[in-house]
Amino acid sequence: MDGPPTTLFTAILISAIALTVFLIYFFVILLRQQRINRRLFREKLHAEIETLEKERRRMAADLHDDLGPSLLAIKFQTSSLELADPVDQEALALAHTRIDQLLEKIREISNDLLPSALGRKGLAAAFEEFTRAVSQNAHTAIHLSINCQPALPPEKSVHLFRVLQEIVHNAIRHANAAHLYIEWTENNGLLSITCTDDGKGFDADEVSGRSRGLGLNNIVSRTEILGGKLYLDSTPGKGTRYSIDIPL
Known about the structure:
alpha+beta, 2 domains, five-stranded mixed β-sheet, elongated
């Protein structure tokens, strides 16, 4: 009497166990593939950013070592001309003024592509120079407090400089902030950087739920390459706060 129900129950139990094993196997494979995809994406992103940095270094070197000296040579060569006509003298003086302006612009572009102080003085000094230069031509007052001198490899220093550079540009160009406060601290092997502005802010949840802009993508991607964590807090009309933790 109990044979058929017992057989049916056993068959159902075996089927349930088989289905459970299959589902577990399926989810394990899915998770493994997701990890592989994330790793491949990070590697691809790292390669793209490294290519971009190499191109920036090349362009900065071309501007600094080729175009700048060529313009300076032209200025020196024309300075030896003896012009009797006051109109010609005035035209030459104007040309020299414009060459000086071009040389200054070249220095600015070259420094933006690859800050010379980054290699000579280190990350903290390079960022201090950058904020001073930006503050002179911006309506945003930058308050910088550096309480540590992180010893980062050159590659990591470049990535972190680009992250901070993007945050400063966002505060000035997009947030229209009157003040930007940046503080560096080091604790338990972590470099912690907080950047807080009083700009117009944005809906952080909305931005995280859709495609991010290039600027924010750059911040997120480089922070991931550094093995760090980024915490973003922003509300429309109440400013934006970035908190970044980088392992040293």
